[in-house]
Each structure stands twice: as C-alpha cells, then as structure tokens.
Amino acid sequence: MATVAALVASGVAHAGSTYDATPDNYLRMLRALRPGDTLSLAPGLYSRGLPVHNLAGDPDHPITITGPVRGAPALFVAHVERNTVSIVDSHDVVVRNLVLDGRNLPVDGVKCEGHARYAHHITLENLLIRRHGNNQQTVGISTKCPAWNWVIRGNTVTGAGTGIYLGNSDGTAPFVAGLIERNLVVDTIGYNLQIKHQIHRPDIEGLPRTSVTTIRHNVFSKAAGDSPDAARPNVLVGHFPPFGDGVDDRYAIYGNFFYANRHEALFQGEGNIALYGNLFVNPYGDAIHIQPHNDVPKAVDIAFNTILAGGAGISVLAGFGSSTYHQTVVGNAVFAATPLDGGIQRGNLAAAFADADRYLMRPFADPGEINLAPRALLTSPDADAPNPAQLADWDRDFDGRPRTPGSIGAYASAETKPRWRPALSLMPD
C-alpha cells in the first residue's frame, strides 16, 4: 500500500511516496521508485537480494530503502553467485536498517558491481553485516566502479574476509570524497578497511578538482579473526592520482579507535594523509606505518594521537617519501618499544610501552575499561601544528573538546574521565 506524502506548497514537486513492502512484493516495488520515495521493508526473511540497479534519486529527494528501526529486522540472506545488495548505475540512494547474513558463502554483503559505470551519493547506514568470512576476498562492503560522495555510517561489520574494500586492486574504479564514520569493523581475516590507490581520476561533473575522504569516529579491531597467512593492517589507504584531478586529494583520519593486530600494524598509508586525534592500541606489535605501497608517502601530518604499541609506535620510512612534500610527526603521545622513527618530529612525548601507566589513567585494561586520558595534561611548547588544508575538527580532541594549545596526545583537556570509554562497539554519535 502506498501512502502519498503532501506535495511541496509551491505546487508541482514530487515529495515522494512511502511504500510498505514484504518479502513477497518488494522487488516489484523497488523497480518503480522515484526521487523522494521510501521503500519500507517489513520484518521478515528476504532471500532474493536487493538489486539497487538504475535507481535515480536527486540531491534533495533521495530514494530511501529501509528496514525497521527497532524490533525484528528485515533480514537479507546470501545466495551463491549473487551479491546480496548489488549496486549498479545508481545515485542519491539511501540504504539503511537492514541485516545482511552472508551465511559464510563466497559473496559480498554490499557490492558496487565492477560492470557498473558509476555509483554516487550512496548512503549505507545502520546495517548489520555478519558472516561474510568465507575467505579473505569475501567483503562486507565493496566498490568496484567509480564511486563518489558515499556516506558509510553507523554500520557493524563482523567476521568478514575483508570488512570494507573501496576501489579496485589495479588502481581503477576510484573511491572519491567519501565519508566513513561511526562504523564498527571487527574480527576480519584481512583488512578492516582498505581504500585502494588511484591511477587516474575520470571526469566527474560537479566534483571539485581537490576533495577530502574522511574516516572518523570508527572502531577498527583485529583482536580475533585474522590469520598469519593473510596478515594485513587494520586499515590501509592508498595514494591518489599522480597527476591531474585528485592529485592533491587528502585523507582526513581522526577520532578513531584502532585496536589489536597480532601480525601487522594497525594503520598503513601512503600519499596525502592527515592522521590526527586517534587512539591506537596494539599490545602485540606496531601501530603506524607510513611507507610505499603502490606509490610513496607525500603530504603526511601525524598529530595529536595517543599510541600504545608493543612494537613500533610511529614509523615513517626515511628516504621513501616524496621530496616535494613533508612528513610531519607533531604532538603525539607514544608509548612503544620503538616510539618514533622518521619524519619531521616536534613536540612529541616518547616513552616505553611499559611506562604508559605513569602518564595515562588506565592504559593496560581491556576495551570497555581502558582509559587513555592523561593523569595530568601533557603539553609542550612545540606541540602545536598548523591545520593542513583547513581540515575538520583539527582543533578538537578525541572527545570533541576544544584542544588546549600546546597539548600532546588525543586527549587535550585536564579531564581524566573520557566521555566514551574505548570499546569494541559503535562509537556514540
């Protein structure tokens, strides 16, 4: 049954309709959606997938496909030879409040298909993506065509081969100007998140020559599930195009909690990166590697992070960065076997891993109990760093509080009780 919303007062604009759908009729309704329409899926078992093919919303009136906000879910179960949510040549579409059960089959949970020409202004929100761990190449959320202005928000991906994989392994199919926030990605075999390098930026109408991909307020953990045969960092970001549009694009990676990796670093990156205000905890090994992967580190700013690592804290491979750019390491609180190596260092606190509890409230507790706030505010006259490219929230600490001038680490106030205790759960909004 369709419920038609009121038309815009000025007259003729299509304000959208809401269609109540069931597992029996949702595919027929899906194909007829127009800008502003909402497909509301009833609780139940959906076994025929969700083909988001040739759906066109508009910026002010996206198409929305949603399951119930609470109670029994709209549960989509995987089948062989078909990705569960398949996206092809669609834009201005929101998919939210679904449960995707991979049943440990070799298919992806959400996939922007490789034969598609584009998928832009796609929002994936409040999805629970589970049991996509058939092998490392089985992915919770994947894009394999040019994709831009995506929002991936508030999703839980657990036990996947790879949690989120954006772009193509050969550097084609760029992922551009995305926002990845408040997701929980845990217990993957390979990466929690990988964004692939880009060899060329196709002409994209309306996209500025330079843009930012933001990764913020996520929880990334490989405390369980990974394999020494498929050792991968929790998060790896590749370089942007070496010339033309996108050459000065940047990653803004802040306010995240990176936890545990038994076989690799928590984070690895190249290209243009601003990595600030994060918490890194890896009792088993390294935290941050800035190094070549498919190109070299370029403009890199590592600032105001709190890091505990049984191995290396921050490693910037000397001699491998671009001579045109700088790699700076400023205002970090690092407790590690080898706290700092490489980069232009200024105003950091470097100490042994075992000494962290001299400076921090409760650094060696488990997630949910750990408290990385300083016992007393850590400061240095050399700890401030200019905001590269006017990035968002550069002047805020991990808790969102204004950063005290000269402060060191992710917590920049004298508060000893964090607003959120770092845990393996979705970070509060």
Structural commentary:
It is a single chain. The protein folds into two domains: about 20-150, no CATH class; about 175-429, no CATH class. Helix content is about 0%, strand content about 40%. The protein contains two helices and 39 strands. The chain has a 21-stranded parallel sheet that branches. It has a 16-stranded mixed sheet that branches. A hairpin with an 8-residue loop joins β38 (about 360) and β39 (about 370-375). It starts with a strand and ends in a 55-residue tail after the last strand.
What secondary-structure arrangement, pairings included, does this model have?
Elements: E1 2-4, E2 17-21, H1 26-30, E3 38-41, E4 44-46, E5 50-53, E6 63-66, E7 74-77, E8 85-88, E9 90-96, E10 99-101, E11 110-112, E12 119-125, E13 128-130, E14 139-143, E15 147-148, E16 151-153, E17 156-158, E18 162-166, E19 175-176, E20 179-181, E21 184-186, E22 193-195, E23 212-216, E24 219-221, E25 235-237, E26 250-254, E27 257-259, E28 267-269, E29 271-276, E30 279-282, E31 288-290, E32 297-303, E33 306-316, E34 327-330, E35 333-341, E36 344-346, E37 349-351, H2 356-359, E38 360-362, E39 371-374
Parallel strand pairs: 2-3, 3-6, 4-7, 5-8, 6-9, 7-10, 8-11, 9-12, 10-13, 11-14, 12-15, 12-16, 13-17, 14-18, 15-19, 16-20, 17-21, 18-22, 20-23, 21-24, 22-25, 23-26, 24-27, 25-28, 26-29, 27-30, 28-31, 29-32, 30-33, 31-33, 32-34, 33-35, 34-36, 35-37
Antiparallel strand pairs: 1-2, 38-39
